[in-house]
Amino acid sequence: MFDKQRLLKISELDETMITQIVDAQMEVFTASANKLIDNFPPLAENVKTALDTNNRAELSKNLSVICAILQQVCADKLSKECSGRLNNIGEVQEEELQAFVIGFMKAVSALSIDLQMAEFKTAPEPTADAPVETAAKNTILAVDDRSFFLTAIKTMLQDTGYKATCITSGAAALNYLKKHDPDLFILDIEMPEMDGYELAGKIREAGKTAPIIFLTGNAKKEYVVKALQAGGADFLVKPVTKDQLLDRIGRYIAPELPQE
């Protein structure tokens, strides 16, 4: 069963509609949310194939199914955005259609992951209005085997008050932790030699308790459960924007304030 307070923190959901859900309706909502969680991965594959082949009839069919489920889980804005595009899908330029579908599917993937977190997580989730002492916590270790993505993270965090160290392998990250104690970790899941799950386990074995945010593009339930079991606190869905990055980080640590 989903916790209503956690659902209210999911930006894609309509806050008014979630607030009005009573206990009897929560069972219906839970069934619809699990329908989205279970059906989104195969639907996403169908959408990708249809987009790659410019098969607009198949694309429209699968997007319509996703839109209907989004309505059932109170993701009204996303559902309307999708429905509006479906009305003239045959007339939209291919580049414009691709840009919309990629952005839309990323948003739905993030929603699916957030719903799973709201259902499976049992520990209280830190909030942006955390105790005052978090103001001093601003160091981040980001690990991803693709250096261009780490460069993007470092660029987005410039002049924000956060101090990011970027490393391209799990082994190098563990070596770094022998002398450093970051306040937050950002870990890619799919890396060679040592994936994000294994690295997270070794981070915990080393006695590091800072929150771990996993980077992923996969909304499958087994991925989310495995990440939670490895000590994950949150997720970022690739590709990441600056606003999304700062929002997720800000749930756990605060940037260093400029000196007056």
Can you give a write-up of this model?
By secondary structure, the protein is α/β, with parallel strands linked by helices. It folds into 2 domains: 4-120; 132-250, Response regulator (Rossmann fold, 3-Layer(aba) Sandwich). The protein is 54% helix and 10% strand. The chain has helices at 4-7, 15-19, 23-52, 56-72, 76-86, 94-120, 147-157, 170-176, 196-205, 221-229, 242-250; strands at residues 139-143, 163-167, 184-188, 212-216, 232-237. Strands 2-1-3-4-5 form a 5-stranded parallel β-sheet, with helices on both faces. α7 (147-157) links the parallel β1 (139-143) and β2 (163-167). The N and C termini lie far apart (47 Å). Residues 122-135 have low confidence and may be disordered.
Brief summary:
With 260 residues, the chain is α/β, with parallel strands linked by helices.
Distance between the termini: 47 Å
Report the helical percentage: 40-55%
Tell how many strands the DSSP assignment holds: 5
* CATH architectural group of the largest domain: 3-Layer(aba) Sandwich
Name of the top-level CATH class of the largest domain:
Alpha Beta
Say which CATH homologous superfamily of the largest domain is assigned: Response regulator
Domains (count): 2
The fraction of residues assigned to DSSP E strands is: 5-15%
CATH fold-level topology of the largest domain: Rossmann fold
- Output the helix-strand order: HHHHHHEHEHEHEHEH
- Enumerate the strands of the largest sheet in spatial order, edge to edge or round the barrel: 2-1-3-4-5
